[in-house]
Amino acid sequence: MSMIQVKGVIRAGRVEVDEPIDLPDGSVVTITGYPRGEALGGSDDGRPPTSEEIAATLAAMDAIEPFELTDEEWAAWDAERRARKEWEKARFREHAAALGEMWE
Predict the structure, then answer these.
(1) What is the Cα–Cα distance from 88 to 30, expressed in whole angstroms?
(2) Looking at the structure, do residues 15 and 39 belong to the same domain, yes or no?
(3) Is 3 part of a structural domain of the chain?
(4) Adjacent-strand bridge partners of 15
(5) CB neighbour burial string for 38-73, b if at least 16 within 10 angstroms, e if fewer
(6) What is the pTM of this model?
(7) Is 31 helix (H, G, I), strand (E, B) or coil?
(8) At 30, is the secondary structure helix, strand, or coil?
(9) Domain that holds residue 29
(10) Where are the strands (E) in the chain, listed by range?
(11) 8 A C-beta contact, residue 21 and residue 11
């Protein structure tokens, strides 16, 4: 089953989409929405962010503490990364064959 994604706006309790949707009558759809102004990525009205919104975003970014690892944590992370890479390489052909069977 393929999925389509279309942007729209609620007006008078109905969804008005920005572009025509090529679906037959009776198609079942799921609508996921965000309250006005809370859409992913910021404002949903197409306007650029205000100076206050930019300042608030920068302040929030500045408040984030840097993520730092000790030398021992770096070594453990690198060992785990290498072990995972070897595990994936050892199982690559098996995994590729299973994926190939899905499309046959």
Answers:
(1) 36
(2) yes
(3) no
(4) 10
(5) eeeeeebeeeeeeeeeeeeeeeeeeeeeeeeeeeee
(6) 0.36
(7) coil
(8) coil
(9) 8-62
(10) 8-11, 14-17
(11) no
